[in-house]
Structure formats: C-alpha cells, structure tokens
Amino acid sequence: MMHGLYLVTDAGCAGQAGHTLPFVVEEACRAGVQWVQVREKTASTRAFVELAAELKRITETYGAKLIINDRVDVALAVDADGVHIGQDDMPPTMVRNLIGPDKIIGLSINNLAELESAEGLAIDYIGAATVFPTATKQDTSSLLGLEGLREICRRSRWPVFAIGGIKAGNLQAVLQAGAAGAAVVSAICGHPSPYEATRQLNQLRNG
Ligand code: TZP
Ligand code: MG
Predict the structure, then answer these.
(1) How far apart are CA 45 and CA 48, in angstroms?
(2) How many domains does the chain have?
(3) Closest atom, ligand 1, to C-alpha of 39
(4) What angle do CA 176, 178, 182 make, to 5 degrees?
(5) Is 108 a catalytic residue?
(6) Closest ligand 1 atom, CA of 184?
(7) Domain residues for 141?
(8) Considering only CA atoms, which residue is closest to atom 11 of ligand 1?
(9) 204 contacts 4 by C-beta, under 8 angstroms
(10) Could you read off the pLDDT of 134-154 as tens digits, one per residue?
(11) Residue 198, ligand 1, Cβ within 6 A
C-alpha cells in the first residue's frame, strides 16, 4: 500500500488552527488518511517520543502507517512503521542497517540529480519536494511544478509522494502527474476541520 493520502504533522500549524496534534491525527485517521509522519523540528527528544507514542496508538487503531521524520532512535523507541529522511539526515544505508529489512524508509529528493543519486539504495518511497509554493517550510529549494514532478515520477523506480502546497484544488493534477500519493501539512493541520479536510482530499483522490 505505497500510495494514498499522507499527513505530515506540524504542531505550530495545528496550534494556529486551535488544534492539538493528537486531535488532528485522530480526525484525519477517522476520515481515512493512510499515512502519518511525525515531524518535529524543535521538540526535545522526550517530547518527541511521547508524542510519537501517543500518535502510534491512534494510527494503530485506524490501520494507518506511522512514519518518523529524521529520527531513527524515535522510530525504534515507539516501534513506528518507518523513518522519513532528507538529504542531510543519516544516510539511507545506515538507517536500513539500524531499523532492519521490514521497516519503511522514505527519502526526500528535491531534483532529478538527487533522485539519480538514490539509485541502488534500499528505500521504499520517494518524497518529491517542493511541488508548489508553500508557507509551511521556509528553506525550500526551487519548485518542481507539475512538469518537474512528472519527470521525477517517470524516472523513479519507487512510488513518489508529492509534497509542497498540495490542497483540494490541485490534488488531482498531482496524481495525474504520476504521483502515487500526496503529502500535506497545512491542508489538514491548518484546516478548521481536519476531518472534513481529509474526507474531501480522499474523495478527490478516489474520484
Ligand atoms: N517539505 C517540503 S514542502 C513541506 C515539507 C515538509 C511542507 C509542505 O507543507 P504544505 O502546508 O502541505 O504546503
Ligand atoms: Mg530530515
């Protein structure tokens, strides 16, 4: 099941909408989100593992996958389904050695060169960033647009999850470009109703 709707958490974004992350994740799971990535850039390790453990109980209940951003130790500590790493994180081969053959590894790539340098790695999916302009992440490199995404999907031997500025209005175009799935932050975390937002995105995906 390497496809579907993929929620990436952002506590700040959720907080601005008046939500806690456990609330957002439970609502999104209730509405059928398939993937949840815990992404914490400033939390202490203690806070990170406690949040991850709490979200694991929720995703497990609903049958969604739980992926941990950057931190192999946190993923192991809570027995998450996998780890998502970027170009500056622990190299994928080392991650694989630590987490074993059965866990999921996702790798972010920002361009074709990074996709090519992933050739031969024991990863399971690609995160293709950044498709559209987004206010959620500051340090995004150049935008892929739909054309750049299409080229990455064509050349990737792994399923591609697109990320960056994806919302109801452009989800279908992203999937038509060849993405196996779409990853969103603000479209769910920042929505007044994470449940309704997820339901709408899921309907578009299936429609
Ligand atoms: N990586 C590339 S863009 C991005 C991440 C984590 C944030 C995407 O957020 P949004 O709100 O879905 O545009
Ligand atoms: Mg990272």
Answers:
(1) 5
(2) 1
(3) 6
(4) 85
(5) yes
(6) 12
(7) 4-206
(8) 186
(9) no
(10) 999 987 779 999 999 999 999
(11) no
**Crossing angle (nearest 10°) for helices 21-30 and 45-62:** 20
Decide: 12 and 18 in contact? Cβ < 8 Å. no
Complex ipTM: 0.99
pLDDT for position 25: 99
Quick check: 160 pLDDT over 80? yes
pTM over 0.90: yes
User: Per residue in 46-98, pLDDT tens?
Assistant: 999 999 999 999 999 999 999 999 999 999 999 999 999 999 999 999 999 99
Instruction: List the structure tokens of 179.
Output: 């993405």
- The Cα 82–Cα 38 span in angstroms is 11
How far is residue 43's CA from residue 131's CA, in Å, rounded to a whole number? 27
Cα–Cα–Cα angle for 82, 88, 94, rounded to 5 degrees: 50
- Is residue 166 in contact with ligand 1, taking CB distance under 6 Å? yes
Gap between the Cα atoms of 192 and 154, Å rounded: 36
CATH of the domain at 40: 3.20.20.70
Q: How many Å lie between the centroid of ligand 2 and the Cα of residue 84? A: 7
